[in-house]
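hey
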């Protein structure tokens, strides 16, 4: 198996990202494209997962709200946050969803460790959490979906977003805990440095180093 690694410049419109993922999943299933890790940033927006509750959208007019087929509840995407969409073929990876989610979590925890941040799992709460003065907070979200055993959607890691933008939702339906970022924890890491850590740790967790760079386009042949 070959995983391609693509870093998208600029701010990617959310509708285009969803359409691109769905098209790529189809060609991966057809055997005419490699798996893909697609790294993007979005303009400010909220997404509603399949378990989102209306009352958790506190400011419905603040940013665009997108209903999405991923698991989970409301979350925020915006500049300064690294979103990685994972289009991986679980049919070739053991068809073990729980193991796959654990691997994705380990990948994020390992990348955070490169910056001296101890990311942790929490029973009953999705995502990656950290301890900080004043209590624990969420630094990364995980929201995946499968179609014909191929994953899409993915993860978001807070590098240096405007954390006040989370005030318009109850993130992931959990109101009693805060959100944080590398910058909020005093780590002045660039997006490029975070991407490098994610690339290294992907190889460590999934046993392969993704191929890069990837030419533009998601669906044409090997590179999209």
């Amino acid at each position: 198996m070959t995983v391609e690694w693509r870093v998208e410049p600029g701010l990617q419109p959310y509708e285009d990202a969803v359409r691109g993922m769905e098209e790529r999943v189809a060609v991966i299933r057809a055997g005419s494209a490699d798996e893909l890790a697609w790294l993007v940033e979005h303009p400010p927006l909220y997404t509603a997962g399949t378990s989102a509750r209306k009352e958790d959208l506190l400011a419905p007019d603040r940013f665009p709200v997108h209903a999405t087929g991923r698991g989970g509840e409301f979350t925020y995407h915006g500049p300064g946050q690294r979103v990685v969409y994972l289009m991986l073929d679980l049919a070739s990876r053991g068809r073990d969803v729980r193991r796959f989610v654990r691997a994705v979590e380990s990948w994020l925890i390992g990348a955070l460790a490169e910056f001296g941040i101890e990311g942790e799992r929490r029973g009953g709460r999705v995502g990656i959490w950290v301890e900080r003065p004043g209590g624990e907070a969420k630094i990364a979200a995980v929201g995946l979906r499968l179609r014909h055993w191929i994953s899409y959607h993915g993860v978001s890691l807070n590098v240096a977003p405007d954390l006040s933008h989370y005030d318009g939702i109850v993130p992931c339906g959990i109101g009693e805990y805060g959100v944080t970022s590398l910058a909020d924890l005093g780590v002045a890491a660039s997006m490029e440095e975070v991407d490098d850590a994610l690339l290294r740790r992907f190889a460590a967790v999934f046993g392969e180093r993704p191929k890069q760079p990837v030419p533009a386009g998601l669906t044409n042949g090997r590179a999209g």
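Residues 220-224 have pLDDT under 50 and may be disordered. The longest helix spans residues 97-113.
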